[in-house]
Amino acid sequence: MTPVEIAKVQAYLRKTFSNNLIKVIPPQRSSGPVEVQIGEEFIGVLHRDDDEGEVSYSLLMSILEEDLPSDLIN
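^ that's the sequence the OP posted. Answer follows.
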């Protein structure tokens, strides 16, 4: 992803989730993943898809069971 794309996606995520702490981090090497953080907490990986000129972005967020609250009643 280009720096312009990263900035646009970051602005979109910040506006959509009303959270200016969201950061989209460019990869350290060209083949590396684009990471998304809230503050210093890693929350997921961003992917770019170009399907015959139609570009979309996907945010993959994994949630570990151990991070879920254990005191909620079903």
